[in-house]
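hi! just following up on the protien thing from before. the input was this:
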Amino acid sequence: MGVGDRVRQVRQEKGITQKDLALLSGVCQQMISKLEVGKAQGSANIVRLALALDVSPAWLEGISPRKTIDHGKQVPANSTLNRKAVHACIEYLSGKADLLEAYNYRRQAELFTACYELCTQQKNRKLTKTSLITMLARRVKGL
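and the predicted 3d structure came back as:
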């Protein structure tokens, strides 16, 4: 099973369309379509897609058998992602392509985990998108 197969599987499990995933991830719908049929590679978009689909980027790439993020804390099954925080993370990561390229995979996973935690913590729901980006930038400095 390739990256595109995993993206399609999770997208269908969640009942979202390619258009919905494009809006959530910031990856264009055409790229998602090409990825799902195997006409494109997804490595440049793995973090965005994983964040939007709420799965591990390592699982999407086929590196890890663990579909979910294990960051030492259990997120209640009924919790939902803070979409404002998701978009803040995507915006931050989109402007930091050089940061992602400079990090090895382990550091990229740590960065993704910081994004995931930001998006799942209830206390962050009242923060503005700008505040969320600032908070993430401070966390990245500590990685």
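The longest helix spans residues 105-120.
The CA atoms of residues 9 and 136 lie 29 Å apart.
cheers
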